Amino acid sequence: MDEKRPLSFYILGAFFILFLIFLYGPTFTIGILSFQGREGGLTFPMRGVSLHWFDQLFQQQSVGDIWGAFRRSLVLGLLVMVVTVVVSVMAGMAFRRRFRGSGVLFYLILASLVIPSILVSLGVGLIFSQLGWTVHWASSGFGAQLTWTLPFGFLIMLAVFNRFNGAYEEAARDQGASTWQVFWHIVLPLIAPSLIGVALFGFTLSYDEFARTLLTAGSRNTLPLEIFGMTTNVTSPVLYALGTLTTLFSFGIIAVFLIVALVIQRRRARRVSDAGKGLA
Q1: What Pfam families does its record include (predicted)?
Q2: What are residue 36's phi and psi, to 5 degrees?
Q3: SS3 of residue 36 by DSSP
Q4: Could you state, in order of their start, the residue ranges of all structural domains in the chain?
């Protein structure tokens, strides 16, 4: 016989449902409004249902450069992702042992997370201007976004290496493996799923970053800046169609990373199984 659930269960359940509505309600609203009819506007009630505004999105726009901004955000996200993964792994390896100044360096890295993003953007832009360098999305924008993604990647790798069993490395060294061989054949395969997480953090945080790119992108907007600019001069549901497509793109990126992580885990499980059979 099922036990009667306490009242707190239903209260917490209702609160969780409200939280999901608050979290995803705006996204669903934009998705619905993007299917407005030809005479539709930016608000309810909808005037018909069509794909008209998605078609308009791929036509020549009177203002803005949507697809150029998308390409810039994609390239910038990939660059930030690669650098975040590499530097985070190096930092995680370095912090496996205490060294002089490690505590101060640790807090300096985390300080970037508590400094207002707009101030970071302003500071990076001023540095480039004072040095006579061009403020550009691929240089100053790239540097500003790294101040946001690197601390997250570093914290993830710090947690991973704190739980890492060094006995595997010792066993490999006892077999005559070099430092590089130990890292490539032992450490890297074991931390690979975590690297997928760091890469996902790096790309997604860069792809939708607004504040730290606002004053460092120069004359070429990234996609978040372009969307913000469109809100002041675009008065049709084409803006919602763009939001729907970019949301689907983001979910697609997450799905790709999850599939890659699943494939890595299955390969690791297969190798462990084959090794166990060999020993048997």
Answers
A1: BPD_transp_1
A2: -60, 155
A3: strand
A4: 64-233
Is the per-residue pLDDT at 65 higher than 90?
no
Q: Residues 6 or more apart from 242 whose CB is under 8 A from it? A: 57, 66, 227, 230
> Is the Cβ–Cβ distance between 212 and 148 less than 8 Å?
yes
| DSSP result, 39-50 | T--SSSSP--B-
Contact 168, 51 (CB under 8 A): no
Q: What is the pLDDT, as a whole number, of residue 266?
A: 82
Convert the pLDDT of each residue in 170-223 to its tens digit. Answer: 888 888 888 888 898 888 888 888 898 899 989 999 998 999 999 999 888 998
- Averaged pLDDT, 64-78: 89
Task: Supply 16's token pair.
Answer: 């969780």
Question: Residue type for 114, please?
Answer: V
36 pairs with which residues across the strands?
A: 49
Of 119, 148, 147, 138, the residue nearest 221 (C-alpha): 138
**Superfamily of structural domain 64-233:** MetI-like (1.10.3720.10)
Long-range contacts of 168-172 (CB under 8 A, 24+ apart): none
Token pair of 51 as six digits: 């794909």
Q: What residues are paired with 49 via a beta bridge?
A: 36
Q: What is the pLDDT of residues 114-170, one digit of tens each?
A: 888 999 999 999 999 899 899 999 999 999 999 999 999 999 999 999 888 888 888
Task: Quote the tokens at residue 8.
Answer: 């707190």
Task: Enter the DSSP assignment of 177.
Answer: -
- Look at residue 280 and tell me whether its pLDDT is greater than 60: no
Please answer whether residues 117 and 211 qualify as being in contact, where contact means their C-beta atoms are separated by less than 8 angstroms.
yes
The position carrying tokens 């300096």 is 108
Per-residue DSSP letter, 164:
-
Exposed, middle or buried by CB within 10 Å (0-12, 13-18, 19+), for 201?
buried
Is the peptide bond preceding residue 193 cis, with omega within 30 degrees of 0? no
pTM, rounded to two decimals: 0.84
